[in-house]
């Protein structure tokens, strides 16, 4: 099935591109893997984290077929093309300590504490997880696999949160403001936040996971390797002079899955930004090409696979991925 992208998304911005010039590739001997400080949270066995995947319901997006009228406080990661996500490897996104394992979400939930009081949460895991409470983990370490749930109204997927609380009184502490199945003082929390509360999920302590992770990637520096994602197959678009949809165009590119480039810089928004819908995301990579030129491309774009009640997209499609 073919799904069009949001008119404010990347594809619609480049639909008028006509001629595609020579593909810019970097010699393999000139590139190296990204320092393994951060990782995306899901992969197929031995694959690049994030490849072959789609974020069906992004952070601070509405899930219209599951929880109308609530902002999603996480990212839901799925395999592309409606392929069952069960069995995909769930990865720790950063070094930390496993603080809690439990619940029936359905499936296991794992909470990891990172430096600075940041937590990552991984939901809907197979009950046979690969870690125990108290374990130290590193970025990219397999902590479990996506549950194969046979009697669940939602397709199998990873529910992935980043937040700055273990308990928040109003969310999952002694006096939560809103009912949810887990109950009070339940570490996983509700996973959603209602529209009728004036506070944004970021104001409750949740964070945009992709913005957090790419902030980490931005600290690595030059000579890191990125790969064109499977989800970018068939797309073309402009190379821009700055990380902005309206910046001048300096060239054009064909996205061919598996092509590799040198990463020079990463630009992303504040993890606590207050945007809603997939249009609230902003992740750009500056790439260097084999002719010595460089330019900016979006690494993640809004996709119309899922639409909110207000008509804005809630899904995201990765175009470029760091090789960690």
Keywords:
single chain, 324 residues, mainly beta, Glucose Permease (Domain IIA), eight-stranded antiparallel sheet, five-stranded antiparallel sheet, 2 helices, 23 strands, globular, disordered N terminus
Protein described:
The structure is a single chain. The chain has 324 residues and is mainly β. It has a single domain, classed as Glucose Permease (Domain IIA) (Distorted Sandwich), CATH 2.70.70.10. It is built from two helices and 23 strands. The protein is globular and about 60 Å long. The model is unreliable at 1-35 (pLDDT under 50).
According to CATH, the homologous superfamily is: Glucose Permease (Domain IIA)
At the first level of CATH, what is the class? Mainly Beta
Task: Give me the count of strands.
Answer: 23
Mean pLDDT across the residues is: 88
Largest sheet, in brief, is: 8 strands, antiparallel
Proportion of residues in helical segments: under 10%
The low-pLDDT segments are 1-35
The general outline is globular
| Architecture per CATH nomenclature, i.e. the level-2 architecture | Distorted Sandwich
Q: Structurally, how many domains make up the residues?
A: 1
H/E element sequence: HEEEEEEEEEEEEEEHEEEEEEEEE
Global structural class: mainly beta
Topology:
Elements: H1 10-14, E1 42-43, E2 53-57, E3 62-63, E4 67-72, E5 75-79, E6 89-91, E7 96-102, E8 108-114, E9 118-125, E10 136-137, E11 142-145, E12 158-163, E13 192-194, E14 206-207, H2 209-217, E15 224-228, E16 236-240, E17 249-254, E18 260-268, E19 283-288, E20 294-298, E21 300-307, E22 313-318, E23 320-322
Antiparallel strand pairs: 1-6, 2-5, 3-4, 4-13, 5-12, 6-11, 7-8, 7-10, 8-9, 9-12, 12-14, 15-18, 15-23, 16-17, 18-19, 19-20, 21-22
């Amino acid at each position: 099935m073919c799904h069009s992208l949001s008119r404010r998304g990347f594809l619609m911005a480049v639909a008028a591109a006509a001629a595609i010039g020579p593909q810019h590739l970097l010699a393999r001997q000139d590139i190296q893997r990204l320092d393994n400080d951060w990782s995306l949270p899901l992969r197929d066995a031995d694959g690049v984290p994030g490849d072959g995947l789609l974020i069906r319901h992004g952070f601070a997006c509405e899930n219209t077929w599951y929880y109308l009228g609530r902002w999603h406080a996480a990212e839901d990661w799925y395999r592309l093309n409606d392929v069952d996500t069960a069995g995909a490897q769930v990865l720790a996104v950063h070094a930390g300590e496993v603080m809690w394992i439990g619940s029936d979400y359905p499936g296991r939930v794992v909470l990891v504490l990172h430096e600075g009081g940041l937590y990552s949460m991984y939901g809907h895991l197979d009950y046979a997880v690969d870690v125990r409470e108290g374990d130290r983990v590193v970025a990219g370490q397999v902590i479990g696999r996506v549950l194969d749930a046979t009697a669940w109204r939602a397709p199998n997927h990873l529910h992935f949160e980043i937040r700055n609380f273990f308990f928040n009184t109003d969310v999952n502490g002694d006096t939560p403001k809103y009912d949810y199945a887990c109950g009070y003082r339940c570490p996983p929390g509700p996973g959603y936040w209602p529209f009728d509360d004036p506070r944004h999920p970021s104001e409750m302590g949740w964070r945009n996971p992709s913005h957090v992770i790419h902030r980490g990637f931005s600290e690595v520096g030059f000579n890191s390797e990125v790969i064109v994602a499977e989800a970018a197959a068939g797309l073309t678009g402009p190379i821009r002079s700055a990380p902005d949809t309206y910046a001048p165009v300096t060239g054009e590119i064909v996205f061919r899955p598996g092509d590799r480039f040198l990463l020079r810089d990463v630009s992303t928004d504040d993890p606590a930004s207050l945007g809603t819908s997939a249009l609230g995301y902003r992740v750009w990579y500056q790439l260097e090409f084999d002719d010595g030129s460089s330019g900016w491309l979006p690494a993640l774009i809004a996709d119309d696979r899922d639409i909110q009640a207000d008509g804005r997209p809630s899904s995201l499609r990765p175009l470029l991925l760091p090789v960690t």
